Amino acid sequence: MGNLSGFVKRLRDIMRNDAGINGDAQRIEQIAWMLFLKVYDSKESDWKFDDQNYVSIIPEECRWVNWAHDDKSGRAMTGERLLDFVNNTLFPTLKKLPVDASTPIKQAIVQTTFADANNYMKDGVLLRQIINIIDELDLSDYEESHAFGEIYESILKELQSAGSAGEFYTPRAVTDFMAQMIKPQIGEKMADFACGTGGFLTSWLKELEKKVKTTADRAEFGTSVYGIEKKQFPYMLCITNMLLHDLDVPQVFHDNSLLHDVLDYTEHDQFDVVLMNPPYGGSEKAEVKNHFPADLASSETADLFLSVIMYRLKKNGRCAVIIPDGFLFGTDNAKINIKKKLLSEFNLHTVIRMPQSVFSPYTSITTNILFFERTGRTTETWFYRLDMPEGYKHFSKTKPMKLEHFAPAVEWWNNRVAINEDGFDKARKFTVKELSEDLGYNLDQCGYPHAEEEILAPMDLIQRYQEERASLSALVDNALKNIVKGLNGEKINPLPNTAENALGRLVEIDKCFPEDMKKSILQYAIQGKLVPQLPEEGTAEELYKQIQAEKQKLIKEGKIKKEKPLPAISEDELPFEIPESWKWVRFNTVISLLSGADLTPNKYNASEKGIPYLTGASNIEENSILINRWTENPKNIAHFGDLLLTCKGTVGKTAVLTEKEVHIARQFMAITPILLDIIYVQRFIENQVESFKFKAKSMIPGIERENVLKLAFPLPPLAEQKRIVAKLEELLELSGKLKK
Q1: Average pLDDT estimate for 276-280
Q2: What is the pTM of this model?
Q3: Which ranges of 355-416 would DSSP assign to H, the alpha helix?
Q4: What are the backbone dihedrals phi and psi of residue 266, each rounded to the nearest 5 degrees, phi first?
Q5: How far apart are CA 730 and CA 726, in angstroms?
Q6: Is the dihedral of CA 250, 400, 368, 472 positive or negative?
Q7: Start-to-end CA span in the chain (Å)
Q8: Residues 171, 154 contacting (CB under 8 angstroms)
Q9: Is the separation of the CB atoms in 499 and 475 below 8 Å?
């Protein structure tokens, strides 16, 4: 196949024309089941070559080579005939393949892979085009098969922008770093109990392959990984991934690791190594807790998986697991008990704090890697904060985290020293006594200075708020219990240092939450995540062309001034990913900007003669205009529908102008949007206020004209702007009520 690099793009371009495909998640899932059958067909050819008696579990008419392959004779199925075969023969047959305990794994995986799979395409001609592109892959050719392994990795990356499916993909830099630090050995068996698409399994195999020297080593290599995945779609992707990595018998099972009693596990259920990124913030059925001892029965999935790991790690076994910040600072009963077990029965030797945007855009929650061993209790734990690499503000799909970004952590790992930068601990060692008694099992050490924190996504913000509240409430409750003990003459237990001012901090987070929620919802909206994209609404590119034509017309008519052109937006300026139908544009290309000018006292009056004269922030209250001055000598005139922005003194207040005309003082700018929804523009500007303050050159708070004009503006289609505004107003009203 000539152009592997364009493989995914070719498939996506065809699928966009199919009415049955709705969004990236379905597009990727559609590709996934066809890829599985193509890869499985290639594997079956190898198995048949090695064993003349091999019989496929798939009936002949449903084998890829017999229905999908186009021999160019003109007999290949297409159109309605192809759709009918796929929907009414292929899928029903594969879903009901006879599978029992005696069925070899490499055959049983076909039925489990298709158990909940779907064909979304409704156009049989387009389906034939997709099948032909996939069939062009020559997986019998070593070079092409290896190259496709790399392409498959890019397909998995696509999951990061496919809605909630992003949870199945951990950046390869992270899985590779963890596998390297864990140092795989021939003969060891590694497990991932929520393996998603198999990222940790493949990183382990890549690292272990360096140790393969003999045929016996190769056999050990082929049985060295074990995975469990609850969700059908990532399970399908993982099986395909393992087949591509030459594991003929993938030990990957479609199951839920949390639905087994942890106390029932024996040595036969334990593994030498566990590498994991457990799902977190997820919801499980209430009965899941029944599978755990009462003191460990947390409502947070990541906590439950940590307990599973502790029960399934062999004596002298090693683990590297990704855990969200909530586990580190959490002081509710379940989290405390899990941490007690971890520190008393395992050696938690290292915690690596990772930068916030590692998992962008799936989650903005900050995560950490815990390294521990089942070699006896912890005596001391090192914490190391991995900062953003130089030149990066954040990671993104176009600028993902790379393995080389872990180089400072690797260098420190091999020569551990305490590091303090600007008064903040970057690396520090804590004794188990300090962590347990002094800090009350608060493992939130060597974290990021508050100034570096980004705005959390709404669901992440809610999760963190709930976790912080639960932790602080637990500290307050313990203090109250101690007071009761003291009043009853009982012995008072010493409280950890973290209990100090817990009630004050509880009040503070309650006070800050509504405003944080508003910022979070605004950010979510301008990232294109608040409402779904609808193909019938067109694209931002089409709207942008209309705006440019309208702008030229207004300039020619003398209604707005021509601005000097600004350089194109560089990749470094893009703060986040936006949907495909959107477009990043310079703000100056879609608006006109008027700066205000002061009038001398003899040029304005208080007797309502002339037009209103707005002098500053006091003229704006709750998005409405308060008028107390007028002028008969207006110059810098803003018009009905313009967005007013206070840019000096009290900056960042906005209001949409409802007066026909007003003269604005230098404390104001007036933004005239061209073919844009004015409220969408207003909400975008509100989202930028903090960055404006940061960029101000003078000591006096102010917003500079140049900084407004050169903003990178996320432009959606106009109809989508209106839907975003409607949803925003609804949510902001709700979050506003939290203040009252």
Answers
A1: 90
A2: 0.81
A3: 407-413
A4: -115, -175
A5: 6
A6: negative
A7: 63
A8: no
A9: yes
